[in-house]
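Thread title: Can someone regenerate the structure for this chain?

I was given the following input by a collaborator and told the matching structure tokens would be attached. They weren't. Posting the sequence so someone can regenerate them.
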Amino acid sequence: MIPWLLLLAYFIVLFACLPKLFAKAGKPAWAGLVPGYNLVVWNKLLGKPWYWLLLLLVPGVNLLMLIIYNVNTSIAYGERELKQHVRMALLPWVVLPKLAYKDAYTFIGPIPSGQRKRTMAGQWGDAILFAVIVATTFRVLTFEAFTIPTESMEKSLLVGDYLFVSKLSYGPRMPMTPVTFPFTHHTLPLTKATPSFTSWFSLPYMRLPGFGKPERGDAVVFNFPEGDTVVANYQNQSYYQLARMCGRKNLLEKGRVVFSAPDGRKVAFPTGGILVRPVDKQENYIKRCVAIAGDSLEVRDGLVYVNGQPQPLPGEGQYAYDFVLKDGFNKKTLKEQYDITTTDVQQEGDRAEMPLTLDAADALKGFSNVVSMARENKPRGTYGARDFWPIFPNDPRYDWSEDNFGPLWIPKAGATVQLTVDNLPLYRRAIEVYEGNTLEVKGSDILINGAKATSYTFRQDYYWMMGDNRHRSQDARFWGFVPFDHVVGKAVLVWLTADPENGGFPMGIRWKRLFSRVR
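Best answer:
Regenerated them for you:
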């Protein structure tokens, strides 16, 4: 609340001062009171190019631009020492009225480019600051670079791929946490868990128009829906899954993660603290959109059905296969001939397990050392004997597995679902967390925002995202729907790629994949 009050106070001061500042510069005072036009006049007085005005429209960037405008105003009205610039940057509420209303300050204009006596540090500082502003604007409005850190999309997208993600495809989402360290996502460089953003100033969700919305088959980058809360020492795992497995009390009060050792003992490790992140600072994931808002989805024996129609696995997608062998596979041969990642091949005795494309599976089943090969297919009820249910909706009333899941209806903006105590687990997080309602269950009654409810109308679209590497992907089958306000953009181009098993960059560059379109 305080940051918003300070920002409101700044604009009040600015509107009160611009007419006087304009009059001192020989411009009509009334121009300072006309929203939009006053920015144009102010920009001309400071001798800045027209495109600076466009940067004022970008959330986050515009806050930095206003500081730059303030400092340049102090320069134009005679304050040209570093300490004066610092004072203006920190206290514009005090300095702007002084420049406007004290007769001692007159308009002398910006420093002519030919007369500027700047130190090398000052010149480099200006260049770096402006480069940061332009690059940030580009990242917010058009394209952003991402990397593939895990194998959940192999072999469609590979570990070591560097992608361009189009913000224009679904509409650029404006920053909701604009005060952040440049070119970071959620953590400061050289630290493990120090936030790179401040949460005391935030903006509501807003998205500019785009070319469309996510469609079935799109490779979509989005903020991990369960990433609002993170265990610092286990950031690649869902806090909620850990809480179900270890107990929320252990994580929050005792500060430890409890795992079961192979011999049955309980082993505890420190959490490193619990981190809370806003939507736009939650971890970036990339998955395949397999169902859109309003669809009905089901997985039968590993095959996805949408609205009753089978959806074949993408051509480079993978299932996991179990082998019984006469003798072990040669991992080097598998890598060289079939591009099977060596760390994916798990062998013990006469057994082996690995994810394979359909073509690779057809080839391997003919190997002379293969006694039998079977695709993994976990039946319903696989997790019924456990102490927690890892498959969405993480409730004992639903005995689903990765391979046999649903049917499930995907919420759509404006559509209404009838609610019962039995189907509430499917939609509770969407209603309560993603759409910001309070929800209670009292006996057989469901209370939303304190009122008894038998139905709910959704306010935004949701999507179902799955990895192409079906048995090596933590995806919507484990944590549910992806709200549209979590969607970042569409992966469109692999601009660089290097195989970490072949030495990474530059030795392991995959030359044939450079500048290839994401399918």
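Residues 2-24 form the longest helix (23 residues).
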